[in-house]
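Colleagues,

For the teaching module next term, I've prepared a clean inverse folding example: a structure given as tokens, and then the sequence designed for it. I'd like students to try predicting residues themselves before seeing the answer, so please don't circulate the second half yet.
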């Protein structure tokens, strides 16, 4: 991270927010939040050249069905979210952390990003407890669809999870109903627009609660031509209103119910990123990581 990412102006009083410019965007921060940005390869394009992350695939179950998602638990041939060569127990995950850190010294972040929904799997929480106890200096991070984020935000805070990514594909249920087949929440299955409404309500509340707790939030938005491509800017606007730090626009990988949809071109994606960047910082260095990825972004190493 460049020198310009230090604080600006005079020394702030304890009650005044600090303001800094981080890779071109002025934000409020405290020292701990800035450290996370500086060392997290997903939250800083500069950091991704120096530091790595380790995804622990301990969460196989999912509570929603996205129309673009196919999860694979015994896959070594694909590099995309939702796939892993093996699902680990929390104890196996801790052992993997030990083995990796013996040989790889640039890992700063331990994350749970699937292959299912981390907050729908108790193994996620046990894994973070084990890692926090043995490796307290490692940053803890998770990715979520957001459905259970309000319900579990206190546990997330207690475990010291400092960065959260929420997949937010729509802020209008009329758009969301085209993206999700169903949602399972508190023992009830929702479909159609009702499913999208339940999911969106919880996503927005969960993001709000995370930001209140000074947890850094990134939103992932899957760009689906003909479905939400004219709506992604509205997602960016809402993310900015909620205090989200960054948006990551991910081009559709055609599969499942969206297998027939042609993915957006790089030029189309860039054009939408430029529009969204007027409202929220855009991530431009994403590598569509697997649920068991280890290493620097774009330079993964095989499990040791």
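(Answer key — instructors only)
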């Amino acid at each position: 991270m460049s020198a310009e990412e230090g604080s600006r102006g005079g020394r702030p009083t304890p009650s005044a927010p600090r303001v800094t410019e981080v890779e071109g965007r002025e934000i409020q921060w405290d020292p701990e939040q800035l450290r996370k940005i500086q060392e997290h390869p997903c939250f800083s394009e500069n950091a991704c050249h120096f530091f790595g992350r380790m995804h622990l695939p301990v969460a196989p179950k999912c509570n929603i069905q996205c129309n673009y998602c196919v999860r694979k638990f015994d896959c070594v041939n694909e590099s995309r979210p939702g796939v892993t060569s093996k699902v680990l127990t929390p104890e196996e995950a801790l052992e993997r952390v030990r083995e990796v850190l013996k040989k790889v010294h640039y890992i700063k972040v331990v994350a749970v990003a699937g292959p299912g929904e981390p907050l729908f799997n108790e193994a996620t929480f046990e894994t973070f407890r084990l890692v926090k106890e043995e490796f307290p200096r490692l940053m803890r991070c998770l990715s979520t669809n957001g459905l259970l984020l309000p319900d579990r935000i206190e546990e997330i805070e207690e475990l010291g999870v400092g960065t959260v990514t929420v997949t937010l594909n729509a802020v209008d249920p009329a758009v969301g109903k085209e993206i999700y087949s169903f949602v399972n929440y508190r023992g009830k299955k929702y479909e159609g627009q009702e499913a999208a409404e339940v999911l969106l309500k919880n996503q927005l509340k969960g993001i709000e609660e995370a930001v209140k707790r000074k947890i850094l939030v990134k939103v992932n938005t899957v760009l689906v031509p003909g479905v939400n491509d004219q709506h992604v800017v509205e997602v960016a606007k809402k993310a900015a209103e909620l205090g989200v730090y960054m948006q990551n626009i991910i081009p559709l990988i055609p599969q499942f119910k969206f297998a027939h949809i042609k993915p957006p071109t790089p030029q189309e994606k860039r054009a939408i990123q430029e529009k969204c960047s007027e409202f929220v910082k855009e991530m431009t260095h994403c590598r569509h990581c697997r649920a068991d990825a280890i290493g620097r972004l774009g330079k993964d190493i095989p499990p040791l």
